[in-house]
Amino acid sequence: MENGCLLNFLRQRSRTLPESWLLSMCQDVCEGMDYLEGHSFIHRDLAARNCLVSEHNVVKVSDFGMTRYVLDNQYTSSIGAKFPVKWSPPEVLHYSKYSSKSDIWSYGVVMWEIFSEGRTPFENRSNVDVVTDITRGIRLYRPQRASQPLYAIMYRCWHEVLNILYFNILTVPCFCTFYKEMHDIFLLFFFSSTITSPFLLRWWCRSLMVGHLSLNCWRKSENWQKIKTSTHILLYRWTPNCLFIVVMNVNIFYSVFVNKYFYKALLKCSCYIFYLMHISCGYIRTMK
Length: 288
Description:
This protein is mainly alpha-helical. It folds into 2 domains: 6-174, Transferase(Phosphotransferase), domain 1 (Orthogonal Bundle), CATH 1.10.510.10; 176-287, no CATH class. The chain has 12 helices and 6 strands. The strands form 3 sheets. A two-stranded antiparallel ribbon has the order 1-4. The chain has a two-stranded antiparallel ribbon with strand order 2-3. Helix 11 (230-257) packs antiparallel against helix 12. The longest helix has 28 residues, at 230-257.
């Protein structure tokens, strides 16, 4: 790809990347991993060095040399197999047990790499020390550029799925859940910042395409059978959208009459119109 691997991209542009770029990169990786998870693939080597950046700065997951297709959502590697220690959860370190939840742990480390702009996780620790630290519950610190909500997502990625007697894969959320949470964080970022980056516009266009959840993630939800009825669709789709409309109106009014940010208000008005068109079309499409 044109801009090479994500790790070098981050290091070469250290201290120059706005938070909107970093947010967008995290969601790009999450979107790719959600696709793999939905097709029963386990990557097993997710890291910034194994992601590529396109000409338009879109991040793509790559390097599928260790990827495995699994039917029961678990894979046990052979004895002596190599794996990236600093990106691996306890169940991999101790029992060589892989699942999509192992990829989620690695994804949390990738988020940490992105917001630390290419630093190496546990950079001053040997692999043996890292295994000991992770087993004792020690986790990576919050990067300076990561907000508390974003670090909370990282930390949830590092929740242990290892019980004393058996491997429990039900204690960590799926990628589509993290995808939605980062989308919500972006909306907060959108309201509180001036739009100067094309990454924010790309984030917004993506939200117009997928709504609060992509259609595939929505159908995989355990509440899908409830949501299918028209009453639940109204509550699920229109309640947050109505709240959004109220907040947007107040935000535009404040930008124009208080801060005099006319260009900012114009951009938000444009996004506002597209959003109204989106939710109207989305409701009609869902009812079908």
